[in-house]
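Q: Please design a sequence for this.
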């Protein structure tokens, strides 16, 4: 019994620590730990992308702060905080190059309310848009080319069946 406590158990503990250390080193070599600075711009991996036509990333978002665990807290272009928190592996760094010039505002699509065909253009539609932060009186008809993100249209057609 003395051999067990003086020789065998310390040897088992030492070997276990060696194996754990080797496993940790392998894990660290495979994982690229990414940290995004506050103020940087990122895109978020699209969690519901189901087809090749859908964008793999959505955004851009601005990193406004980090939570206690270090996960970035994101803000969209309207200034609202993104409701979910995502690990850095779900994000991709993007450069924020202005796409709107002058004093133009940036509007976010809340929902597509309806569609209608465009005269003399077979298979081409206009979409009635409800803008985020606005009421039904301010809905407008927009063509496909006006959308920054085609996922909104794809989701609309999926809902219709």
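A: Design:
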């Amino acid at each position: 019994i003395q051999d067990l406590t003086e020789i065998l158990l310390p040897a088992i503990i030492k070997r276990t620590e060696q194996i754990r250390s080797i496993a940790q080193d392998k894990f660290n070599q495979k994982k690229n730990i990414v940290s995004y600075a506050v103020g940087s711009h990122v895109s978020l991996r699209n969690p519901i992308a189901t087809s090749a036509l859908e964008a793999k990333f959505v955004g851009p978002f601005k990193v406004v702060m980090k939570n206690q665990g270090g996960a970035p807290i994101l803000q969209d272009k309207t200034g609202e905080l993104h409701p979910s928190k995502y690990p850095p592996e779900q994000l991709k760094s993007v450069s924020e190059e202005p796409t709107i010039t002058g004093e133009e505002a940036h509007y976010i699509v809340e929902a597509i309310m309806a569609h209608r065909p465009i005269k003399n253009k077979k298979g081409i539609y206009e979409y009635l848009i409800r803008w985020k932060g606005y009421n039904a009186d301010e809905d407008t008809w927009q063509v496909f080319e006006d959308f920054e993100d085609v996922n909104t249209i794809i989701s609309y057609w999926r809902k219709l069946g």
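Q: Thanks. Anything notable?
A: The two ends are 73 Å apart (CA to CA). Residues 118 and 125 are 5 Å apart (CA to CA).
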